TrEMBL record:
<feature type="domain" description="4Fe-4S Mo/W bis-MGD-type">
    <location>
        <begin position="8"/>
        <end position="64"/>
    </location>
</feature>
<dbReference type="GO" id="GO:0015942">
    <property type="term" value="P:formate metabolic process"/>
</dbReference>
<keyword id="KW-0560">Oxidoreductase</keyword>
<dbReference type="GO" id="GO:0003954">
    <property type="term" value="F:NADH dehydrogenase activity"/>
</dbReference>
<dbReference type="GO" id="GO:0046872">
    <property type="term" value="F:metal ion binding"/>
</dbReference>
<keyword id="KW-0408">Iron</keyword>
<keyword id="KW-0004">4Fe-4S</keyword>
<keyword id="KW-0479">Metal-binding</keyword>
<dbReference type="GO" id="GO:0051539">
    <property type="term" value="F:4 iron, 4 sulfur cluster binding"/>
</dbReference>
<keyword id="KW-0001">2Fe-2S</keyword>
<dbReference type="GO" id="GO:0022904">
    <property type="term" value="P:respiratory electron transport chain"/>
</dbReference>
<dbReference type="GO" id="GO:0008863">
    <property type="term" value="F:formate dehydrogenase (NAD+) activity"/>
</dbReference>
<dbReference type="GO" id="GO:0043546">
    <property type="term" value="F:molybdopterin cofactor binding"/>
</dbReference>
<keyword id="KW-0677">Repeat</keyword>
<dbReference type="GO" id="GO:0051537">
    <property type="term" value="F:2 iron, 2 sulfur cluster binding"/>
</dbReference>
<keyword id="KW-0411">Iron-sulfur</keyword>
<protein>
    <submittedName>
        <fullName>Formate dehydrogenase subunit alpha</fullName>
    </submittedName>
</protein>
Length: 689
């Protein structure tokens, strides 16, 4: 009986699904997951989780897990031993680099992986392979917010903590749907909003769960957010409802900024956005009356051709109202994936090293060159978008990708698929044989989060440890071990025994995270960067100064970029995003029986009026066609969308139904984040049912 008892273990982990970063204990018996038990001391969630965190783990025992390396021969894949697989990858990468140079290979890291693994991935690309061609999936989501924050306030992260949002008396959510994308965070907002003194404004095309309970719901025309934000900001300035003391003491470029708003009158905003002048004034009054306002935004803002500029407009609004640097105020670009913040923090981007140090800064490069004992590239690398284009041009010959379903989640999937077909050599490292893996030459079996140690960084810059709950399944390995095996075959001499040693090396090279150590992150302990040498962290940014040499924030004038216009035959705007029960493309959650039974497939939401006009109902099958592709999908008729607006979740159990077969390659001008939200389609009825 005692032996049986001792097989039951309780291990602390951090959720692998979203940027809220819930942590909890997982009870297991051998490989069986008995229960998920959140604890009061969990900093982001306390005793809450959502349905994915609570029930979303069975995929780790799926019979579809990759358990052995695979090598392609002709059209088929054959299992091989690790030694053979890594020798082959090393040889091919080495040959391609020899023939075409280091910049002919691209590397894509993963927000599913730990900070330590992301650090090693960029170290591998830069120090072993000699290129800055390294990126991660923040290119698909919040790169525009990071860009905006870094040019206005200094740091590319949420300015406060999730729990601080409760202290706000006005919460303003723009282009985000936390009830489905950041569920535990939305629970906290909902609880706080029940207080009489906390108001909620939501701006979203769709009447999502938060919009439904908002005091004001703004429903702009697609792609027009910058216009109404600028108009509200202009009202605040023109009527003297801004924080002139804060602006005078802590912000630069006010006059240029004020002048740049001339065009954004209420009349213009009403015409462009469809939001009435009265409602815009009402919003301005609510901002005027708020002592503490938090601004939250996500992909409804960023995934546009003007995504960076709209993010900048939000930062500008926060600055002129002095709503930053105090408890209950601040800017929160909500991070989608569990560790998308960390992937960027640890340098998986073409222009920055860990801690956002520029690759163009000679002094920084010299430090890394000394630490890594190599000469580092000083050219800007390629981002995800550029890599795809360079493959089409025949200039990028090989790609090494870990934990990212690029064939489904990158925009314009047909275009991306054609690029992947053209690669001379393609390595995919993943937990499952993904859609992307079908294009690979070598597939390397990686472990999911439950089978490894490391740290994740959530949306509030909070670094937390995860401990190994289960042993790796079959011959799968943690990504850091795979990378080390490969690097050493290519001339490196890495000898990490434990991820803690990787983190120690990484933080020793960054000012931003200098004091983070595993011993300071024991159990449920966590640290929010910046963390000083002596371990003091910073839950609240900008209390005294902004992260520029002079300590002052910058107002940055921006202009509106009208959304993509397609020919009239594409008469329906197709919005897209997440759903509660599934995560991202769905490779993990559709392999969880309970979640798959709850929502077995993707669907398209259609308004009652459109359904009537086209003679369709819930369950009808339709074909959506854009200039870039087509998908067949089932209809759900709902009030959440209006008129000619459609909504389709990005998660899908059937690869051929993925929404990105419809989206385009248009992108944000500053960051190349795809304009996923700017697409129109036409609809053909296949089967009314
Ligand atoms: Fe928490 Fe997000 Fe995981 Fe849900 S998916 S448990 S909200 S971290």
């Amino acid at each position: 009986a005692q032996m049986r008892e001792s097989r039951v273990r309780k291990t602390k982990t951090v959720c692998t699904y979203c940027g809220v970063g819930c942590s909890f204990d997982i009870w297991t018996k051998d490989r069986k997951i008995l229960k998920v038990e959140p604890q009061m001391e969990a900093p982001a969630n306390q005793i809450s989780t959502c349905v994915k965190g609570k029930f979303g783990w069975d995929f780790v025992n799926s019979s579809e897990r990759l358990v052995k390396p695979l090598i392609r021969k002709g059209d088929a894949f054959y299992p091989v031993e690790w030694g053979e697989a890594l020798d082959y990858v090393a040889e091919r990468l080495s040959d391609i680099r020899g023939e075409y140079g280091p910049d002919a290979i691209g590397y894509i890291s993963s927000s599913k992986c730990t900070n330590e693994e992301n650090y090693l991935m960029q170290k591998f690309a830069r120090s072993v392979m000699g290129t800055n061609n390294i990126d991660n999936c923040s290119r698909y989501c919040q790169s525009p917010a990071t860009y905006a924050l870094r040019q206005t306030m200094g740091y590319g992260g949420d300015s406060g903590s999730i729990e601080d949002i409760a202290a706000a008396d006005l919460v303003f959510i723009i282009g985000a749907n936390p009830a489905e994308s950041h569920p535990v965070l939305s629970t906290r907002i909902r609880q706080a909003h029940k207080r009489d003194d906390q108001k909620l404004i939501v701006a979203d095309l769709r009447k999502n769960d938060m919009a439904e309970r908002a005091d004001q719901w703004l429903q702009p025309k697609p792609g027009t957010d910058l216009v109404w934000i600028a108009a509200v900001t202009k009202v605040l300035i023109d009527r003297g409802w801004y924080d002139s003391t804060f602006v005078a003491e802590r912000v630069r470029h006010f006059e240029e900024y004020r002048a740049s708003l001339q065009r954004y009158t209420l009349d213009y905003a009403e015409e462009v956005t469809g939001i009435s002048k009265e409602q815009l004034i009402r919003v301005a009054e609510m901002i005027r009356d708020a002592n503490r306002m938090c601004l939250l935004w996500a992909m409804g803002v960023t995934q546009h051709m003007g995504g960076s500029d709209t993010s900048t407009a939000i930062c500008n609004l926060s600055l002129i109202t002095g709503q930053v640097g105090r408890l209950g105020t601040g800017v929160y670009p909500l991070r989608g994936h569990n560790n998308v913040q960390g992937a960027g923090d640890f340098g998986c981007a073409p222009d920055v090293l860990p801690g956002y140090a520029s690759v163009f800064d000679e002094k920084v490069r010299a430090e890394y060159e000394q630490a890594w004992n190599v000469k580092l590239p000083d050219r800007r690398g390629l981002d995800n978008h550029q890599m795809v284009e360079r493959i089409h041009e025949g200039r990028l010959k090989a790609m090494y990708l870990k934990g990212e379903e690029i064939a489904l989640v990158d925009s314009n999937a047909n275009h991306v698929g054609k690029a992947l077909e053209k690669l001379d050599f393609f390595v995919v490292q993943d937990v499952f044989f993904s859609k992307t893996a079908q294009y690979a030459d070598v597939v390397l079996p990686a472990c999911p989060s439950l089978e490894k140690e490391g740290t994740f960084t959530n949306t509030e810059r909070r670094v937390q440890r995860l401990y190994k709950v289960l042993e790796p399944l079959g011959e799968s390995k943690p990504d850091w071990q795979i990378l080390m095996g490969l690097a050493n075959r290519l001339g490196a001499d890495w000898n990490y025994q434990h991820p803690g040693e990787i983190l120690a090396e990484a933080v020793s090279l960054t000012e931003l995270m200098a004091g983070i150590t595993y011993s300071r992150l024991e159990g449920y302990d966590s640290l929010q960067w910046p963390v000083s040498d002596d371990g003091v962290d910073t839950p609240l940014l900008y209390a005294d100064r902004f992260a520029f040499d002079d300590g002052k924030a910058r107002l940055v004038p921006v202009d509106w970029t009208p959304p993509l216009q397609l020919p009239e035959e594409y008469d329906l705007h197709l919005n897209n995003g997440r759903m509660l029960e599934h995560f991202h493309e769905g490779n993990l959650t559709y392999r969880v029986k309970g979640l798959r039974e709850k929502v077995p497939d993707t669907y398209v939401e259609v308004s009652g009026s459109l359904a009537e006009e086209r003679g369709i109902r819930t369950g009808s099958r339709v074909r959506l066609v854009s200039p870039y592709g087509a998908v067949n999908v089932s209809v759900v008729v709902t009030d959440d969308v209006k008129g000619k607006e459609l909504y389709m979740p990005m998660n899908t159990s059937k690869a051929e139904e993925a929404v990105n077969f419809l989206t385009s390659s248009h992108h944000d001008q500053h960051t190349h984040t795809p304009a996923y939200k700017e697409i129109a389609v036409r609809m053909e009825v296949l089967d009314v049912q």
